[in-house]
Amino acid sequence: ADVVVWDGDPLELTTWPEHVFIRGTEVPQDTRQLRLRDRYKNFTPGEVPPAYRHGPTPPGATP
What we know:
This protein is α+β, with helices and mostly antiparallel strands. It has a domain at 3-43. The chain has one helix spanning 32-40, and strands at 3-6, 17-22, 25-27. It is elongated, with a radius of gyration of 21 Å.
């Protein structure tokens, strides 16, 4: 069965689903965009993977 557990009246605009079950399995409430935001929000330039760096690698720098 499909079930949605709300934090209030489901007809109110300010109500959000707390849990969603589809065919008896809980569906995570996060999105790819939120996971990427959390992954990259507190990085330093040296921690960024080489594929995401812009421009050529400066001489003497480790790629």
